[in-house]
Specification:
- The chain is an alpha/beta fold.
- The protein has one domain: Rossmann fold (3-Layer(aba) Sandwich), CATH 3.40.50.
- It has eleven helices and ten strands.
- The strands form two sheets. Strands 3-4-6-5-7-8-9-10 form an eight-stranded mixed β-sheet, sandwiched between helices. Strands 1-2 form a two-stranded antiparallel ribbon.
- It is globular.
- It comes from Cecembia lonarensis (strain CCUG 58316 / KCTC 22772 / LW9).
- Its EC number is 3.4.11.5.
- It holds the Pfam family Abhydrolase_1.
- One of its GO terms (molecular function) is aminopeptidase activity.
- Keywords: Aminopeptidase, Hydrolase, Protease, Signal.
Length: 350
């Protein structure tokens, strides 16, 4: 997980916009559809974009979605990280899903840049976000015969929480770059990742955190050089994809800080996600589940491999060269594994 002002670590990811015409066969009705044919769709006017109304305890708001492609049995809803990041992290999905005929939906959660951004902090709870995802599912006509839910980082946490409550609506679940315990995440960050830095650098970072001096420009400077480029996205900053930089520019710090806090090595005391732990509940997830871990992630890959063994019907995808955004820095392994999972589940091979 990361914090806004300075490149959040709880980044989370995926989507498309154009591509070749691909034919998919509907196994249930033997009806062939054209992948990029928008005719007779209610979102044709804006090319797949739809503002979905969401009912909340504080009134009605709207969230932004964009549907890409047509496939009656494979529809992937992408949950971005943060909280408060954007769907833009998943732009690279455009390079892979269309050629495989997999339909997917970009989605900015309430409070994120392309959706409404109310300032009432009482809206930023896990339960309300789960209810929001359920309302989006219904509005988009997703169901157990076609609905794959993908979540990365905070989105992975949200995907788990949705599955605990609504897994009967799912065909498949993907938990990407997210552990099942934030205390374990913090332990891994401080005991494993931090000590990989030069000792004096890590000591200075910890001192800044202890002083809660998060606005100190030195904090961001040290993290950019010694942490982000090694564990968030393993590329020199000047080579980070434009879509990633755009998402960082658009992050909503009010949502992020309230739920996650400022720290890059755990959850700040007082943040609402502090203490979140669902390890004991993973065994209740029965839907086919893919857990994605990466060799250089901010999240412990061994923990995520364990998660895949805890759910009733799990598979582990390891991206050895990847970090928190492994869809970019271990892209071939990431997409080959993700596409194989979606197709295996769809074809009854999982």
């Amino acid at each position: 997980m990361k914090k806004y002002s300075f490149l959040p670590a709880l980044l989370l990811i995926f989507f498309i916009s154009c591509g070749p015409q691909i034919q998919e066969q509907d196994s249930s009705s033997s009806v062939t559809v054209t992948y990029l044919d928008f005719s007779n769709r209610d979102d044709q006017f804006e090319g797949g974009i739809r503002m979905v109304p969401i009912q909340t305890p504080k009134g009605e708001f709207r969230v932004w979605t964009k549907r890409v492609g047509n496939n009656p049995t494979m529809k992937v809803l992408l949950l971005h990280g943060g909280p408060g990041m954007t769907h833009e992290l998943y732009s690279c999905f455009d390079g892979y899903f269309p050629s495989e005929g997999i339909e997917y939906i970009y989605y900015d959660q309430l409070g994120s840049y392309y959706s409404d951004q109310p300032e009432d902090q009482s809206l930023w709870t896990i339960d309300r976000f789960v209810d929001e995802v359920e309302q989006v599912r219904k509005a988009l006509g997703l169901n157990k015969d076609n609905f794959f839910l993908y979540g990365q980082s905070w989105g992975g946490m949200l995907a788990m929480e949705y599955a605990f409550k609504h897994q009967d609506n799912l065909k498949g679940l993907v938990i990407s770059n997210m552990m099942a315990s934030l205390d374990e995440y913090e332990k891994y960050a401080k005991e494993v990742l931090g000590p990989q830095m030069p000792a004096e650098v890590f000591a200075e970072i910890m001192q800044i955190e202890e002083n809660e001096d998060f606005d100190n420009p030195r904090y961001e400077e040290l993290l950019l050089e010694h942490h982000y480029q090694h564990h968030v996205l393993r590329m020199p900053l000047e080579e980070w994809p434009e879509a990633v930089m755009r998402s960082l520019k658009h992050v909503n710090p009010n949502v992020y800080v309230y739920m996650q806090g400022h720290s890059e090595f755990g959850i700040t005391a007082g943040a609402t996600l502090k203490g979140w732990d669902r390890r004991a509940d993973l065994k209740n997830i029965k839907v086919p589940t893919l857990v994605v871990g990466a060799g250089h992630d901010t999240m412990n890959p061994a923990h995520m491999e364990w998660m895949a063994s805890e759910v009733q019907n799990g598979r582990y995808l390891f991206c050895p060269d990847g970090s928190h955004l492994s869809q970019y820095d271990d892209q071939k392994v990431f997409f080959e594994g993700l596409i194989r999972f979606v197709k295996d589940v769809d074809q009854g091979k999982f």
